[in-house]
Amino acid sequence: MESNKDKYDVLLSNGWDRISYNILRGLSKENLKVAFGTDNYFGMGYFSKYAAAKFIHHNYKKSEELFIADIISAINNYYPDVYIPTGEEIFAVSRNKKKIEQTGVKLPVSDIQTLETLNNKTISFKIAEKAGIPVPLSIVPRNMDEIHSFIRQEKLPVIIKKDWSRAAQHVIKITEENFKNINRILSDHKLSFGNFIVQKFVEGTTYGVSLLMNQGDLRAKFTHKRLRERIITGGPSTLRVSVNNQLLEEYALRLLSSVKFHGVAMIEFKYDERTKQGWFIEANPRFWGSVGLAINSGVNFPYLLYKMAVEGDVEPVNNYEQGIVTEWWLGDKLVLLKNHFSTKGKLRDSSYKKKVDYFDDFYKDDPLPFFAWMFLLLRRKFVKLK
Description:
Blueprint: E1 10-13, H1 18-28, E2 34-38, E3 53-56, H2 64-78, E4 82-85, H3 90-95, H4 97-101, H5 112-119, H6 121-130, E5 138-139, H7 144-154, E6 158-162, E7 171-174, H8 182-188, E8 196-200, E9 205-214, E10 217-231, E11 234-243, H9 246-258, E12 263-272, E13 277-284, H10 291-297, H11 301-311, E14 325-327, H12 329-340, E15 358-359, H13 368-382
Parallel strand pairs: 1-2, 1-4, 2-3, 14-15
Antiparallel strand pairs: 5-8, 6-7, 6-8, 9-10, 9-12, 10-11, 11-14, 12-13
Helix pairs in contact: 1-11
């Protein structure tokens, strides 16, 4: 990394996808100077006109030690006021929080124990229950007999989730149709007793409540309703709309306040529109896939996080424009294509007909990242980089 004499406002890492790209845009909207870091797969934001500087770091999954060394080197090179991890590298960063903060940079993330307990599905539902938040009836089975007993009592379908997963990976809906193959399903997903949860299936629409917290106190909130999801059992939304839901917002605040959370998080719920009942599903103690919707609706979480880190606090933001629709263009087109050719019936769709206001992955003022992203996806699929 070449020596740099300029000072930057923010340093970002793990800049691979639409999440980091929208974070970059949110910071740049406020005229902040951003040093954008990514591994050698590059990523969308690497090709954005809004990245004031770019650097390469090791992949945190391959070597946490080398990744952290690269981040510290980048901080010493770009002199940012604040360092913001944009994805799951937040866990590696939090484990090394003291070492990173010795550089003088502000790092607005929770401690590793808080992050890991919220992210772990076999633990987070217990935290929610303790905070008085409704949760689908759940067990962490110790053997197959406990699974069979649970299913006899609660009936099918049930949902099985690995303790540590993302984007609906290792989330399986067990029905009458596939129950006879449950042993093979557990084996295929590398699920061992103690590292997965079995939950009663609840009907409802998926909502996400996003919050900015300052040591357990609310500083900003935003709620979205999912209109279409990548997988029928859940997973990332490909189409969603900004709404509010006071009940779910109260639940989310209660959960994060109970652990004195610091930083940004998105809490997922199922909500029955008819009965007005909601259930906690999972916590994502980091930035989320639809962060662009929040920013474009008036809650600029990346900037608020930066400002809170620099100034110690920020004025609460509770209002935003409702009815704004955003689409993950590429993801949504793949869902619709899969839906069209599905032989097992239509996937979950939406009758919501309002036009799309923004895309997660394409902006007219900065089109290159979208086309670079298409190329990079193919490159990542077919070329193994060192």
